[in-house]
Design a protein that fits this description.
By secondary structure, the protein is an alpha+beta fold. It folds into 3 domains: 200 residues, no CATH class; 161 residues, 2-Layer Sandwich (Nucleotidyltransferase, domain 5), CATH 3.30.420; 108 residues. The protein contains 16 helices and 12 strands. The strands form 2 sheets. Strands 2-6-7-1-5-4-3 form a 7-stranded antiparallel beta sheet. Helix 2 crosses helix 3 and helix 10 crosses helix 11. The protein is elongated.
């Protein structure tokens, strides 16, 4: 069970007064129903009579009767006299009876007691009505709102204020509830002149029916240029189809607008997976990633924090997929972009981003990425001296200090790797046991050797020029 508290902000004072009047009538209805239940009235008779008396629809009346029955049963279980129940609180009522309290203190207690007696409204969720008919959460571009039924086909909207940054997760949960169409209960309470809403939900996810048995959909989210790349693969890892979903709305605008559109994009991805009957593979990201220096200056950390909310979008995809019975697989994102750009972008003539999504999909199936034979030949022929020449070339051609430092750092790492490799008999390309290098370092060297000369100032998105090197093994030209 999840319970979320939020404050309601009304567009104008008139709307607030309408809701306060509704809460007053509902509270009176609940107290009246309690007395009638003590007298032995049944639910059907009460439901018919109370609608006209308090000008409430049948759902509100039914919820009032349910609450009254709950108070009655609780009183009996505690061995209290049901006829002596005091709505508004026995302790507060007792303080009001003391004659030594007067003036402002007395008025303050009286107001608090009256709010507890008259400032209540409860509305149960209904699965057949996709959530809650009388009090429905609606996600709009300018925020999250509660639509309150105040009469026949009459509604009042109040903005849901779930808290500041530290409580941002509350608002995200409310939006997840709204998008899920599952039943949730809403209880309104008046406190110090403000109306607060309490949302309660108990969600049960359906059994996973769509698994990776027939293949997967790989997802790669790109901060720049701001799009979702996806690929469809079969159970053997073969590429079937792919596409891109632009996300221009996430480049600017308010927090609420961005959150609204994240939900829309998450729905698009889950819809694709559902239509194709395949599981979803996403990157497993940790927002606590601090980078190598521990100061959040790493490339991955900056991308997560300063672009759009990477993790928030992936979380929404996971939530919606679970509700559709679709398996979600999370994989290590390390080197997916590098492997994609060097191996699959030129091979299938696809963009770097789509190629990264393809690597993510294959990784979700548990497939390993081997370096193509021609790339191995190329690496075996590569020398430290050639990388030294490349480093001097970068120093001369790249003016941007940030770009230069990044490329020089990569080249230095590649040179260090090759020097360790040359010390091995036969210069065999395999992971170096007992060193800090791994299989991924081969891809790092490849990137430095073939991408940096092509585009020293910017990572290219078209790698068709590498096709001859990858397939035919041609290198050594201009």
């Amino acid at each position: 069970m999840i319970v979320i508290q939020a404050k309601l902000i009304f567009l104008n004072q008139q709307d607030k007064q309408i809701v306060l009047d509704l809460m007053r009538r509902w509270s009176s209805c609940m107290k009246f129903a309690y007395k009638r239940l003590l007298e032995g009235y049944d639910r059907k008779t009460l439901k018919r009579d109370l609608q006209g008396t308090f000008d409430l629809n049948s759902r509100y009346v039914d919820d009032a009767i349910m609450k009254a029955r709950g108070v009655l049963e609780s009183s009996r279980q505690l061995d209290n006299n049901p006829k002596k129940v005091i709505f508004g609180g026995r302790d507060l009522f007792g303080k009001l009876q003391k004659r030594h309290i007067n003036g402002k203190e007395y008025q303050k207690l009286k107001t608090k007691w009256q709010e507890r007696r008259k400032g209540n409204l409860y509305s149960r969720g209904d699965k057949s009505k996709k959530g809650n008919l009388n009090t429905r959460i609606e996600v709009k571009e300018n925020g999250t709102f509660l639509r309150i039924n105040v009469g026949e086909r009459k509604y009042v909207y109040a903005r849901i204020e779930a808290g500041y940054k530290k409580n941002k997760r509350r608002e995200e949960l409310l939006q997840e509830i709204a998008e899920s169409n599952i039943p949730y209960s809403v209880e309104l309470k008046l406190k110090n002149g403000n109306i607060y809403a309490y949302f309660a939900i108990e969600e049960e996810y359906p059994e996973i029916k769509i698994t990776k048995e027939k293949g997967v959909i790989g997802i790669d989210i790109n901060a720049h240029p701001g799009n979702i790349s996806w690929t469809e693969v079969d159970e053997k890892g073969n590429l079937i189809s792919y596409g891109n979903i632009p996300m221009p709305e996430l480049a600017s605008g308010s927090k609420d607008k961005k959150e609204y559109f994240r939900w829309q994009y998450a729905h698009e991805i889950v819809k694709i997976a559902k239509e194709k009957g395949k599981a979803i593979v996403i990157e497993k990201l940790d927002i606590k990633e601090k980078g190598k220096r521990g100061d959040f200056s790493g490339r991955k950390s900056r991308r997560i924090r300063h672009s759009f909310s990477y993790k928030s979008l992936l979380s929404k995809i996971k939530t919606l997929a679970k509700r559709e019975g679709i398996e979600v697989i999370e994989v290590n994102p390390s080197y997916t972009s590098i492997i994609g750009m060097l191996k699959y972008a030129p091979q299938y003539m696809i963009t770097k981003d789509v190629a990264a999504a393809y690597v993510i999909a294959r990784r979700g199936l548990g497939l390993q990425e081997k370096i193509p034979d021609n790339y191995i030949k190329f690496l075996n022929a590569l020398t430290v001296d050639e990388l030294e020449e490349l480093r001097e070339h970068v120093k001369k051609t790249v003016r941007n200090k940030h770009i230069k430092k990044k490329h020089l750092r990569e080249i230095n790492k590649a040179m260090e790797f090759l020097q360790s490799l040359e010390s091995k008999p036969g210069r065999v390309l395999e992971p170096l046991d007992g060193t800090s290098f791994s299989a991924y370092d081969f891809w790092r060297v490849l990137k430095v050797a073939v991408v940096t000369p092509l585009s020293p100032e910017k990572v290219k998105r078209d790698f068709s020029v590498l096709k001859e090197l990858l397939i035919q093994g041609k290198w050594g030209g201009p």
